[in-house]
Design goal:
Number of helices: 1
Strand content: under 5%
Distance between the termini: 84 Å
Number of strands: 0
Radius of gyration: 25 Å
Length: 60
Amino acid sequence: MKARRLLGWLGRGAGEAGQTMVEYAIVAALIAVVAMVAVEALGTGITDVFNKIADEITSI
Protein backbone atom coordinates (compact mmCIF):
# COMPACT_ATOMS: atom_id res chain seq x y z
CA MET A 1 0.00 0.00 0.00
CA LYS A 2 2.75 2.44 0.94
CA ALA A 3 4.78 1.45 -2.12
CA ARG A 4 1.84 2.14 -4.42
CA ARG A 5 1.31 5.55 -2.82
CA LEU A 6 5.04 6.34 -3.14
CA LEU A 7 5.09 5.33 -6.81
CA GLY A 8 2.04 7.47 -7.51
CA TRP A 9 3.68 10.44 -5.81
CA LEU A 10 6.93 9.96 -7.73
CA GLY A 11 5.06 9.62 -11.02
CA ARG A 12 3.36 12.98 -10.56
CA GLY A 13 6.65 14.74 -9.98
CA ALA A 14 8.18 13.28 -13.14
CA GLY A 15 5.27 14.52 -15.25
CA GLU A 16 5.57 18.03 -13.90
CA ALA A 17 9.33 18.06 -14.45
CA GLY A 18 8.81 16.91 -18.02
CA GLN A 19 6.21 19.59 -18.59
CA THR A 20 8.55 22.25 -17.22
CA MET A 21 11.37 21.05 -19.46
CA VAL A 22 9.10 21.28 -22.51
CA GLU A 23 8.07 24.81 -21.53
CA TYR A 24 11.71 25.85 -21.21
CA ALA A 25 12.48 24.29 -24.60
CA ILE A 26 9.63 26.24 -26.20
CA VAL A 27 10.83 29.51 -24.65
CA ALA A 28 14.42 28.81 -25.77
CA ALA A 29 13.21 28.07 -29.31
CA LEU A 30 11.23 31.31 -29.42
CA ILE A 31 14.25 33.29 -28.22
CA ALA A 32 16.40 31.63 -30.89
CA VAL A 33 13.88 32.48 -33.61
CA VAL A 34 13.67 36.12 -32.47
CA ALA A 35 17.47 36.34 -32.39
CA MET A 36 17.75 34.91 -35.92
CA VAL A 37 15.13 37.31 -37.26
CA ALA A 38 16.87 40.26 -35.57
CA VAL A 39 20.26 39.30 -36.98
CA GLU A 40 18.75 38.81 -40.43
CA ALA A 41 16.96 42.17 -40.31
CA LEU A 42 19.85 44.12 -38.84
CA GLY A 43 22.68 42.22 -40.52
CA THR A 44 23.06 44.40 -43.60
CA GLY A 45 22.66 47.60 -41.60
CA ILE A 46 25.36 46.57 -39.15
CA THR A 47 27.65 45.57 -42.03
CA ASP A 48 27.16 48.99 -43.62
CA VAL A 49 28.02 50.75 -40.36
CA PHE A 50 31.21 48.74 -39.89
CA ASN A 51 32.20 49.34 -43.52
CA LYS A 52 31.74 53.10 -43.06
CA ILE A 53 33.84 53.00 -39.89
CA ALA A 54 36.55 51.02 -41.69
CA ASP A 55 36.53 53.50 -44.59
CA GLU A 56 36.88 56.42 -42.20
CA ILE A 57 39.76 54.76 -40.37
CA THR A 58 41.63 53.95 -43.60
CA SER A 59 41.17 57.50 -44.89
CA ILE A 60 42.94 58.98 -41.84
